[in-house]
Amino acid sequence: MRRFLLLYATQQGQAKAIAEEICEQAVVHGFSADLHCISESSKYDLKTETAPLVVVVSTTGTGDPPDTARKFVKEIQNQTLPVDFFAHLRYGLLGLGDSEYTYFCNGGKIIDKRLQELGARHFYDTGHADDCVGLELVVEPWIAGLWPALREHFRSSRGQEEISGTAPVASPASSRTDLVKSELLYIESQVELLRFDDSGRKDSEVLKQNAVNSNQSNVLIEDFESSLTRSVPPLSQASLNVPALPPEYLQVHLQESLGQEESQASVTSADPIFQVPISKAVQLTTNDAIKTTLLVELDISKTDFSYQPGDAFSVICPNSDSEVQSLLQRLQLEDKREHYVLLKIKTDTKKKGAALPQHIPARCSLQFIFTWCLEIRAIPKKAFLRALVDYTSDSAEKRRLQELCSKQGAADYSRFVRDACACLLDLLLAFPSCQPPLSLLLEHLPKLQPRPYSCASSSLFHPGKLHFVFNVVEFLSTAPTEVLRKGVCTGWLALLVASVLQPNTYASHEDSRKAVAPKISISPRTTNYFHLPNDPSIPIIMVGPGTGIAPFIGFLQHREKLQEQHPDGNFGAVWLFFGCRHKDRDYLFRKELRHFLKHGILTHLKVSFSRDAPVGEEEATAKYVQDNIQLHGQEVVRILLHENGCIYVCGDAKNMAKDVHDALVEIISKEIGVEKLEAMKTLATLKEEKRYLQDIWS
């Protein structure tokens, strides 16, 4: 079979899952994929690789390649490499990203650009998949187009070999064997498609019959609205292109436990984990604020955890107890929740390179795995829906799951699964005849990811302590019925600190109450770019509405201590653009900001209140932080372009970061009299110089 090298660089498993899908489809199309994580450099060698290369790369942070690609990127960025270093290489690259972030698909773009600079050439155009609208909208057609591109590559390269007389000679026996295997797999795949086409027609007939029955009650099927569980024509009557069934590969055995205790230490992590007590928790907003914002203080004095202002760290959090119990009940496994889960690879699996999931520790209970290891809130991918089809007995439910994972049902999948934040439990409640085995869930549910938070303190100001700030996330899940849910981590933290929570008395540093301090597990994050300049004379501008102010409180605390230590030092101007809804409800750190302003730590404070009636001319024109930036455009441009200053933006990626970027383009264009394109280039230069820094999230 014709071989290609398939590499993936993943942060949270998306790129790996897509690469595995390519690997499985390759066999059906008569190819053999040599699949590796890009970090496994001992298993491949691009310097000598003669086969075509396919790379799937995600993006992390604010445009960085994933951690697994760091070593690879560092190696290819070596400036001593000759320009023809990869001249022999032909490749296709699929980048994954989120257009809510400024550096869309930048992880892939960095690798793509450098491979080209080193002489590699595309045999297939690069794809950029957008998680903001649904990765599958680009991923599925990109994979479909990969096979003809590979066939054309092998055809043309074979022609070149024949011209040069270097065509490799394969043994007739092995060629025949590969051909027979390839043809058999191709026939199997066609049978699979035909089977779905037939079942689609049969189920369409069922739905048509339902429509006839409904007609007898004077209700037409067209009168119904589509929903998670029900479609309407033309989809309900369409023949479907359904993805191939992902091969099952796990064998699960449940063993009664001997009452051994489990701990969070069993949770797998690439970074060191510190268990630290919560020493204080403060509600920063009033009870009538739209969002509840909490500040939590951790006691890190008995650990060697260290941080700088601007750093972030991860909180290892569990799933909601009630959701875990509901899921186990629905799976009829509640009576086995204390049983140990023993995993093995199925001996007859067709999955190439099948391996035990690394995020599921050995000899842990079912309850522990569902609580601490699996992202049970994850939006099920189409491959998961396809796998659930075969464990659904009701024909109408089966048909609907087929529709949701089909090419024809892409819009319904986006609307009722992805956009509705449907999770596995929602699907199982919506489709009661679906009875998947535990092994299938362990194969498809991704790792429960630690949640990142910005450090909101300075260790100079609060020795042995670490502060962070968050909104308690609440959202409506609409599948299959409306349910108010809290964020996995913020909901858990809010519950955890309830016994020690204080009202907004952040300025008082002593807690008079003596409640037992709950503990949480944290790990450091390796980002090291969002820091104060080494030279304190450099002026800085900070933009942080809402909880985006968190790292800037750390900056200001740090500067206060530095100014105390160096009273004659040269310290540059410090601007803060802050915004919130209401002055009296969610103006976070109001007293602290006044203190910093009064003592000259903060030289300019510009605050916007988006929901209050404006008072005075400035408030009337500055509803949001970007409005205030435009109002003070002359000073901002002077700092950035004439005084070598830095600008930091922290907060929401979806709207705020883009609006701030647009405002900066506007003021640069206006103040120095250039076209917007030129202003955008100026900002790009600031980013390259690490003078325009973002810590943003969606």
UniProtKB/TrEMBL annotation:
One of its GO terms (molecular function) is [methionine synthase] reductase (NADPH) activity. It catalyses: 2 cob(II)alamin + A + 2 H2O + 2 H(+) = 2 aquacob(III)alamin + AH2. It is an enzyme of class 1 (oxidoreductase). CDD domains: methionine_synthase_red. Residues 271-533 form the FAD-binding FR-type domain. One of its GO terms (biological process) is cobalamin metabolic process. One of its GO terms (cellular component) is cytosol. It is found in: Cytoplasm. Its EC number is 1.16.1.8. Its main location: cytoplasm. InterPro entries: CysJ-like_FAD-binding, FAD-bd_FR_type, Flavdoxin-like, Flavodoxin/NO_synth, Flavoprot_Pyr_Nucl_cyt_Rdtase, Flavoprotein-like_sf, FNR_nucleotide-bd, NADPH_Cyt_P450_Rdtase_alpha. This is Methionine synthase reductase. It comes from Theropithecus gelada. The gene is MTRR.
